[in-house]
Amino acid sequence: MPDKPILNADEWRIADPDRPSEQLSREQLLEMYYFARLAREVEERLVVLFRQSKVIGGLYRSLGQEGESVATAYALERRDAVLPLIRNMGALMTMGVRPIEIFRQYMARGTSNSRGRDLNIHIVHLPDADADEPVIVGPISMLGDSIPVAAGIAMGARMRGRPRVAMAWIGDGATSTGAFHEGMNFAAVQKIPLVVVAEDNKYAYSKPIARQMAIRRIDERAASYGIAHELVDGNDMLAVYDAARVMVERARAGEGAQLLGVDTMRMQGHAQHDDARYVPKALLDAWTAKDPLRQFRGVLNDRGAAHDRELDDIDKMAKDYAAREAEAAASEPLPDPASVVRGVYADDPYTVPKLEFVRSPFAGSPGLKTRPTPEAVAGDDT
Amino acid sequence: MPDKPILNADEWRIADPDRPSEQLSREQLLEMYYFARLAREVEERLVVLFRQSKVIGGLYRSLGQEGESVATAYALERRDAVLPLIRNMGALMTMGVRPIEIFRQYMARGTSNSRGRDLNIHIVHLPDADADEPVIVGPISMLGDSIPVAAGIAMGARMRGRPRVAMAWIGDGATSTGAFHEGMNFAAVQKIPLVVVAEDNKYAYSKPIARQMAIRRIDERAASYGIAHELVDGNDMLAVYDAARVMVERARAGEGAQLLGVDTMRMQGHAQHDDARYVPKALLDAWTAKDPLRQFRGVLNDRGAAHDRELDDIDKMAKDYAAREAEAAASEPLPDPASVVRGVYADDPYTVPKLEFVRSPFAGSPGLKTRPTPEAVAGDDT
Amino acid sequence: MPLITYLEAIRQALFEEMEADERVFVMGEDIGAYGGAFKVTEGLHEKFGDARVVDTPISESAIVGSAIGASYMGMRPVCEIQFIDFIACCFDMLTNFAATSRYRNGAGVPIVVRGPCGGGVGGGPFHSLNPEAYFLNTPGLKMVEPATAYDAKGLLKAAIRDDDPVLYFEHKFLYRRIKDEVPAGDVVVPIGKAAVRREGSDLTIITFGAMVHTAFDAAAALAGDGVQAEVLDLRTLAPLDRDAILASVAKTNRALLLYEARRTGGIGGELAAIIAEEAFEYLDAPIVRVASEDVPVPYAPPLEAAFLPSVDKVVDAAKKLVQY
Amino acid sequence: MPLITYLEAIRQALFEEMEADERVFVMGEDIGAYGGAFKVTEGLHEKFGDARVVDTPISESAIVGSAIGASYMGMRPVCEIQFIDFIACCFDMLTNFAATSRYRNGAGVPIVVRGPCGGGVGGGPFHSLNPEAYFLNTPGLKMVEPATAYDAKGLLKAAIRDDDPVLYFEHKFLYRRIKDEVPAGDVVVPIGKAAVRREGSDLTIITFGAMVHTAFDAAAALAGDGVQAEVLDLRTLAPLDRDAILASVAKTNRALLLYEARRTGGIGGELAAIIAEEAFEYLDAPIVRVASEDVPVPYAPPLEAAFLPSVDKVVDAAKKLVQY
Ligand SMILES: Cc1ncc(C[n+]2csc(CCOP(=O)(O)OP(=O)(O)O)c2C)c(N)n1
Ligand SMILES: Cc1ncc(C[n+]2csc(CCOP(=O)(O)OP(=O)(O)O)c2C)c(N)n1
Ligand SMILES: [Mg+2]
Ligand SMILES: [Mg+2]
After folding, report:
1. What is the tens place of the pLDDT at every residue in A138-155?
2. In terms of residue numbers, what domain contains B164?
3. Measuring CA to CA, how many Å separate B139 from each of A326, B121, B136?
4. Taking Cα atoms as reference points, which of A70, A44, A95 lies closest to residue A296?
5. Which of A205, A206, A263 to mutate to test the pocket of ligand 1 (most atoms within 8 A of CB)?
6. Rounded Cα gap, residues C270 and D257, in angstroms
7. What CATH code is assigned to C195-322?
8. Would you state the torsion angle of the CA atoms of residues B125, B126, B129, B133, taken in this order, to the nearest 10 degrees?
9. Interface ipTM > 0.95
10. Which residues on adjacent β-strands are paired with residue B230?
11. B204-234: string of b/e by CB count within 10 Å (b at 16+)?
12. B contact test, residue of A181, A207, A229 with most B CBs within 10 A
């Protein structure tokens, strides 16, 4: 939709050596690649499970959006808060959620974070105040509702004296909801450290973005609130990281809420049942050429960070890991029907499995303290 | 709040002879003055009734805002639609609502448009398609809800092949509601001929506008929607008329929704019970000096449209008229308790008194077809 | 007569009403060329175009609010809520604006708000709700929910022609599972009238929507044990058909209230109150409710099965009731 | 013991809880220096400052949504809805987000949402509602409504300390009309416990909020005619105190359900269903509901008086009931 995605030219440019991404170590670059690939492979595995009717209900892919999802989350500190949407598998992988948690959710296992009570990525993690873990609050289906909640999380953390930046993702379509508006305005007035990532992926279900809003750039959705906003090429992972990092730092520094628009493309239908015949083929083709993972491989090659062979190895590692995790989850039990009435109120203490977190095989790098510290390679976790 | 209220400099300036207000006849200028004065006098009379405990519930004044309220409505054609808020007495007078209707409502008379069922200006007028009358849809108390409804009125009228511009007023505070957002965005996407007048009167109840929004100009509330917006000095009636008229014409021409921000001041508390001690005296003093009626008298003098003596006569006429109307309403009965269960569904045909409309004593002027045609001076209507 | 599904019946009603009355138009999310999440509006856009098939932003309050406005101008909007769960997002607009308008100022709001309700398809907490109880305390609204394809068509036609706001709940479990002979053309099922679907003498199962079919199955099982259950399909949930309810209870002297929403605070309460107040003389046993558990709708199939009312639960409750 | 008003009792509870627990904070519209539309929060801002008295934009969904978020971080937000009618504007956030959170992911939402409800003051259709029935079909929420100053304090303290979301309805008619002896300091009225306010043997009036006082007056009038009414004050509307309800009905054998909301679809339905299901054996007469008319709340005093339940209406209904 936009003429040309822009970065905030005032502060830095792609070629600028001050770009935050210039500070990323080789391991970190590889780690970003790994998370994006892992997100894709987890979803590919979900497609297999879906075809086997092991996924209950719908399956929603983030194909083509893994890059922005990872790169935005990669700009956070480990203890920050994330409020992902259904297409932010990349953010969840980046925050260290063990893939098995996703499979458990999609297959409605009793071992899942919601114990089979809620769908897909509707997971919640509220760590102890001292734990070196992120806050994760999955969405409810009512679009937009996450935004006020995200504002409240960042506000509440500040009140508790343990400030966290909250990052919430929102689709182009979801920005049309009243809840989005109220949450954005509230965050702006209260100067809350909230970074909203607004994903222009060209469609909301069947509806092209022009039927959703009469503005040309999604980041202008922030203009009514006095919230700083920028638009970035969502398929250029380093550009996304740069923009997100600057915004996260600004939010952390007390400059208030920020909105980052990402220009990207939903490469499949809304969900698996949707063949998306309403999407012009030319549009898809143009974006296929811009696949974020392929592009990022090019960047890694160019920078001399990794050869294709090494990247192929990472691909394989991610794929195998996803497969093992899926298999492990599939062998876990469905919830016990007798548990259906448990845990509605606090006076019925019904235990919830805590989400498991893992560290990536690249987590040993120094530098930004955004990633989980090293401990084990992924393979050891299954 | 804004540095300096602006007009859209691209199209016209105050001094521009193409200003729409330059087309106004002397009678029209006097009529605008009359409507604003009448609005004030009706409210002054309501204060008397309030003190006599004849007003049920709260009384909300528009003191200081009569100018913008009249001048925006004056930009409409007679058959357009208005969705006023509680402080748009001026708009109601301008659209020709007979003052007695207001008194009936505030005193909960059985003769009122709502038959004592609803408050103050919660009145509705849906004329026959061929009647030369405005659509009037008063608000419900839930702030913001009028905006989607206004969009629907203009959309529905267009669908019926009898297009009308809809004008809806909204307070600074009410722009924070989700309903406002959804309605604005909907109107923008559907290119609906809706003109929203956003009133920055510095406060929403006790809250200064800076606690309501982090933008500096209220008209920027339209920026997220791709809706054309301007800000105007709300106490300069001709400037407001100019800006509103341009927007109304644009909307009518199919250019879609428009938002006019007006920079004004609520000169009393939120309602009569509120002494507004939270308003700095200096602020009030500054705005007292800018009283829209006083300013407009100056304009009329300068233009040679009327001497003070003539204007004093108008003042007296308005005051007497308001008094007579109030008295007439006060003598009307309260609703019959037995009627309480009537008319919830269509199958119980419970008659609703149609709103009465009157023409102003100045309605004989040619020119814009915005006003009711002449028929009688106000005095004859009581 | 053609055999069509519940879903096709809804589509047919929309199509015919739009053809017959140019004031009727549809609005909602993805209802245009795409035909809606469940394809209910498929073909409408092709036939009637953008002007009468308004594909809206994701803004339930704007959908209902603008429908109110359009109805004031003489239009007859039919709003689709993609899943009826999202009606929570326009609760204010419906209960405060639409429902009160006629009473307050005589300004009728002839809109229909329709959408898929109900569980049984693994939809989880936010795609499975039965929201009727949210709106039962709001005079000025009408509510209907068909159990058959015939009623799906006839009630929707009645709703569109009604001069008041009507919430039309269509049970997604029935969309493609239920087929009826439904005549083309005018089929109008009056709002406010329940239907005795099965005669019986031992107890009355008062129900509606998908649960009518559960009641049938339960009645069949009970008949095997010599218990004759009457099945009363409410069809309209507001205003309730008190006469039909009371007449049936007067006949069978036992009432089993079956509904898919959560038990507490559900429509069964209102039904129980009507019966306990006005048919007390006739009651030979407690009024029994069979409904879903008082929890959010769970997602995993074994949980949802445990959550929902079932034939077994109805049979058990009915047996206890007749043995009382 | 100091005699304080219902309103002062609420303020005292807020004050004491904020003093005792730094996690407690208040948010809402005009609740800062201004002290709120009814001055309930007067003095809090002076004492606790901007940090713990958050004056918000006019955004009920943001108020409740951000409270949910803050509660996840360990805070205990108390949200004021300026008039409880506006709770319709955050219906989605409450029923879908707050109410389901613990069940879905074990994430408790210890928030309180409070605001003035009820009629009798000429507030008209949008400033007079009693919204309890809107929320009764939503497991995960709790609801309370005090009838006395003592309970106003004690229930608010309990609500703030509760680990689940609690809707706290305060009846604006009682704000300054009711005074009680209320001790300073810890007064906690447990959630889920009704109170027998007046013992009686001939019928039970089950009620809450402002209607408790109507019930008292009716009971006094009835006593003059030799009818002894028991008055059961529910205090908690969700979850209901079934034991207390059933025990009282078992004793008096007659139930009169008195509530200020509209009759149809109101909480009386749930009460009737519980009684008709579980105390059927004890019932000697129909269950009777006395409630408001099924219309929007009208504004003119004569209409509102006709709309609301009154002592006369209760006395009439009670007499018929005991003569049954
Ligand atoms: C309030 C609400 N209305 C409607 C829906 C149904 N719905 C689910 S996803 C979706 C499209 C979302 O589009 P967008 O926000 O652009 O996100 P994307 O799917 O493109 O990532 C819709 C309409 C919903 N979940 N919530
Ligand atoms: C949804 C909603 N929340 C709260 C209120 C209570 N309320 C009534 S008027 C008002 C202030 C409105 O301020 P603004 O919109 O600026 O209009 P003004 O009074 O300044 O004209 C508030 C908070 C309401 N009417 N509706
Ligand atoms: Mg999208
Ligand atoms: Mg204001």
Report:
1. 999 999 999 999 999 999
2. 30-378
3. 55, 8, 10
4. A70
5. A205
6. 13
7. 3.40.50.920
8. 10
9. yes
10. B260
11. bbbbbbebbbbbebbbbbbbbbbbbbbbbbb
12. A181
Model confidence band, residue B7 (pLDDT cutoffs 50, 70, 90): low
Can D127 be counted among the known catalytic residues?
Answer: yes
The candidate with the shortest Cα–Cα distance to C108, out of C191, C42, C31, C164, is C164
Residue B370 burial (CB count, 10 A): 20
Task: Quote the ligand 1 centre to A143 CA distance (angstroms).
Answer: 6
Full-model pTM: 0.97
Total domains present in chain A: 1
* pLDDT given for residue B144 in this prediction: 98
Ligand 1: atom nearest CA of A144 is 1
Which DSSP letter does residue B144 get?
T
Answer whether C29 contacts ligand 1 (Cβ < 6 A).
Answer: yes
Residues in chain D closer than 8 A to A156 (CB atoms): 69-75, 77
Q: Give the mean pLDDT of D202-207.
A: 98
pLDDT tens by residue, D78-115: 999 999 999 999 999 999 999 999 999 999 999 999 99
User: Quick one: CATH architecture of D3-181?
Assistant: 3-Layer(aba) Sandwich (3.40)
The two structure tokens encoding residue D206: 């089950």
Residues B284-319 have pLDDT tens digits of 999 999 999 999 999 999 999 999 999 999 999 999
Exposure letters A268-277 (e unless 16+ CB within 10 A, then b)? bbbbbebebe
Mutate to test the interface with C, among A340, A341, A342, A348 (most CBs of C within 10 A): A340
Q: Which residue has the tokens 């509120």?
A: B274
Please report whether residue B12 resides in a domain: no
Q: At what angle do helices B26-51 and B99-106 cross, to 10 degrees?
A: 20
CA distance linking residue B308 with residue B288, whole number of Å: 19
DSSP for residue C297: P
Distances (CA, A) of C149 to A91, C121, C192: 45, 19, 18
Q: Are residues A112 and A101 in contact, defined by beta-carbon separation less than 8 angstroms?
A: yes
Do D277 and C295 make contact, defined as CB atoms within 8 angstroms?
A: no
pLDDT digits (tens, 9 = 90+) for D236-246: 999 999 999 99
| Angle, vertex CA B36, rays to CA B30 and CA B40, nearest 5 | 140
Domain with B315 in it: what CATH number? 3.40.50.970
Q: Is residue B22 part of a domain?
A: no
Outline where DSSP puts E strands in chain A. 81-83, 124-125, 135-137, 166-171, 194-200, 203-204, 207-208, 228-233, 258-263
